[in-house]
Amino acid sequence: MKLNYSILEFLYRNRKRGFSRITHICLDPNRATQIARKMKEEGLIDFKQRRFMGSNGELCFIAPPALMITPLGIEMIESQDME
């Protein structure tokens, strides 16, 4: 849960930039994607993820997600900071 809060806090501080990468917080791109999906289901963040295709039309790799905090996430962070 600390990692989720750290990500949310980072996105809150950088919300004016729009979508941000979190790979420096969670170095494992697969773990970062799992966390992002869970937080998106909770409505705290929104993300976009790019898929890169190879020359033969098959999926080569998926880039780590770029995230953005939602109004619900902002509200959660601000209520946590008040306590």
Explained architecture:
The chain is of the alpha+beta class and 83 residues long. Helix content is 45%, strand content 20%. It has three helices and five strands. It has helices spanning 2-13, 29-41, 71-82, and strands spanning 20-21, 45-48, 51-53, 59-62, 66-69. The strands form two sheets. The protein has a three-stranded antiparallel sheet. A two-stranded antiparallel ribbon has the order 3-4. The chain is elongated, with a radius of gyration of 14 Å. The mean pLDDT is 81.
Task: Name the poorly predicted regions.
Answer: none
Largest sheet: 3 strands, antiparallel
The coarse silhouette is: elongated
Secondary structure category: alpha+beta
Q: How much beta, percentage-wise? A: 15-25%
Helix content: 40-55%
Give the N-to-C terminal Cα separation.
18 Å
Q: What strand line-up does the widest sheet have?
A: 1-5-2
Q: Determine the number of helices (DSSP H or I, runs of at least 4 residues).
A: 3
Average pLDDT:
81
SSE string, helix = H, strand = E?
HEHEEEEH
Rg over CA atoms? 14 Å
Count of DSSP strands:
5
Keywords:
83 residues, three-stranded antiparallel sheet, 45% helix, elongated
Condensed summary:
The chain is an alpha+beta fold. The protein is built from 3 helices and 5 strands, in the order H-E-H-E-E-E-E-H.
Topology at a glance:
Elements (H helix, E strand, L loop, with lengths): L1 H12 L6 E2 L7 H13 L3 E4 L2 E3 L5 E4 L3 E4 L1 H12 L1
